[in-house]
Amino acid sequence: MIPLVTIDGPSGTGKGTIADLLAERLGWHVLDSGALYRVLGLAATRHGLALDDPEAVTPLAETLAVSFGRGRVFLDGEDVTASIRTEDVGMAASRVAAHPSVRAALLDWQRRMHRPPGLVADGRDMGTVVFPDAPLKIFLDATPEVRAERRYKQLKEKGLDANLPELVVDIRERDRRDRTRPVAPLRAARDAVLVDSTAMSIAEVTDRVLEEVRRVFPGLVS
Ligand code: C5P
Fold first, then answer.
1. Position 219 in a domain
2. Which domain holds residue 29?
3. How far is the CA of 171 from the centre of ligand 1 (A)?
């Protein structure tokens, strides 16, 4: 059995950071599935495709030349790590991710990431659709206001333009789309451990998740 932890939840909960810290601590691989949808959103925008038209976007998803390495993300060999982090690309990702045929096209790619010595998979549907048999599923949540504030700080730190009230609106809109889409909506798996990070630091959430890892995979982590 190859160990696997899924971490799902809306954006701005610290999911990505926690998945990276956990994977580093455990020496496992990490799957940032949001980055995959972001690369697709970026590629579709660059090709001038109609993002809401599955017939336009699915062929691109089927042939997407995406790769990950040493914390960087590549599209056709080009380093797009920074370009995929903008709010526009996040919104494009959420639009292309709403198509069932697009999600189906990316399923195998994601499942192939489950390799020894283990995987931490971060996204919206890791525990519900992509890895429904995962032995440990975490669902991370926080209020939209706190998540918008965290995103605001992140963008500012990167020297990017940011407007807090607009971010709250964007986050609510993206949540609504992600939670109400008919296929793989954002929701906690029935057997997920719920963690509300609103009043918690990254270190506190990581400790909380590690506690669960010790419980589910005894002996794997000290
Ligand atoms: O997590 P991140 O904000 O990078 O994800 C960008 C968008 O990609 C999300 O708003 C969501 O619509 C989509 N996504 C998804 N399924 C995943 C990961 C991300 O639909 N597993």
1. no
2. 4-214
3. 12
Cα(58)–Cα(74) distance, integer angstroms: 19
Number of independent structural domains in the chain? 1
CB 120 within 8 Å of CB 32: no
- In tens, the pLDDT along 45-55 reads 999 999 999 99
pTM of full prediction above 0.90: yes
Query: Is position 220 within any domain?
Result: no
Ligand 1 pocket by Cβ (under 6 Å):
11, 33-34, 37-38, 90, 93-94, 97, 123-125, 174, 178
Q: Where are the beta strands (DSSP E) in the chain?
A: 4-8, 29-32, 66-69, 72-75, 78-79, 119-123, 136-141, 193-196
Sign of the four-CA dihedral 84, 196, 20, 120: negative
Nearest-CA neighbor of 102 among 48, 50, 180, 174?
Answer: 50
d(CA 134, CA 41): 27
pLDDT for res 221: 79
Please report whether residue 83 resides in a domain.
yes
Ligand 1: atom nearest CA of 126 is: 21
Cβ distance 43 to 75 under 8 Å?
yes
Q: What CATH number does residue 131 fall under?
A: 3.40.50.300
Domain assignment present for 221 = no
